[in-house]
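dumping this here before i forget
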Amino acid sequence: MAQETGSSMLGCFPAVLVAVLFGFLTFLGARQSAASMELVAPVEAQAQSAAPVDAVEGKQSLTVIEKVETQISASVPATVTLHVMGYQPDGCTFPVQVQQTRTADQVTIKIFRIVPKDVMCTMELNPYNDTITLDGTFDSGTYSVDVNGTVVVVKV
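structure:
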């Protein structure tokens, strides 16, 4: 019962050769894809630099409004001031923007921040308190003021 040792060494040689060849081809493929990535990067950088410097890409994060108090001046025509209380729904501290639009007896206030899309914020709530003077003057009448979905009626 003699065991043959010579044939077992030659039997694994093709498997070792295939493994070495596969590893070499994988290395070359990874190296070529890295080289093609290097060529694409400068083109992307040029496209991004063409965008205006002031433009910030991201999503609008609306301020959550809990309470709106109104104050009407005694002057004629009157001015209206709002004291707005609420919170920012995340822990990021980007500048708050306020947009006002007015059509007849309807005033719409949008309070928001632009949060860049590649920024991750904590889950901490940030309080928001601000006094906003509405644009223009108000004659006698009833006005509806919508602040991010919280509507108050103002009688002048």
